[in-house]
Amino acid sequence: MSNMNITMNKPIPFSDESAMTQVDDLRPRPGDALLVVDVQNDFLPGGRLGIAHGDEVLPVINHYIHHFLAKRLPIFFGRDWHPADHCSFRAHGGPWPVHCVAGSAGAAFATELYRAETATIISKATQRDTEAYSAFSGTSLADRLRQAACRRLFIGGLATDYCVLNTVKDAIANGLVPVVLLDAVRAVNLHPGDGKRAMAEMRALGARFAGPEDLPP
After folding, report:
1. Exactly one of 80, 100, 150, 163 is catalytic; which is it?
2. In whole angstroms, what is the distance from residue 177 CA to residue 25 CA?
3. Which among 32, 38, 161, 183 is annotated as catalytic?
4. Any idea which of 7-16, 108-117, 160-169 has the lowest mean pLDDT?
5. 82 - beta bridge partners?
6. Euclidean distance between CA atoms 200 and 196, whole angstroms
7. Residue from 154, 172, 164 nearest 209 by CA
8. Which of 16, 33, 186, 198 has the smallest count of CB within 10 Å of its CB?
9. Which CATH number is 151's domain given?
10. Range of the domain at 55
């Protein structure tokens, strides 16, 4: 995890106006992609930066992964992939304990997470002096979504009030409609209510929200 700066990449143009007028139809369709944010061992209960109830997202996210696979839609797995002396660590002036060091067991995706073979891995915060909460920050995600002609990005993972929030902000900055999967996110809540405030901010920015009723088995 790292700071909240938004990476302003070239907006992804919508291929037609229908993508903007049908955003309330939340059933995945061509032009949609799924992004699983930082479902890594260090962010699960018992990890170095464990999020309370973070493990509850695993079966839910697996459901969404299979849903997108069945529809042959793009899937991305985002992850923190820090050097051992990353600037976000307390020992180097940052706010967080050491976590998700590249190649460590803590940085690995959760064992229970279904690893779709077709999924693309997006690694962020890979440079010692560069912080990145957003999956777009310093990565190829925007270009890959543009190449896949994606217009909406369904987002689930950890944590609501940091990496999910900032990824949503950058998705909007890149011309995408973000759809937050309500049952597939959990918050750090470093300060009580941070998760609720993040949800309110995302809603105010124009994010959509989906639940299991929108993506049935």
Report:
1. 163
2. 12
3. 38
4. 7-16
5. 101
6. 6
7. 154
8. 16
9. 3.40.50.850
10. 31-210
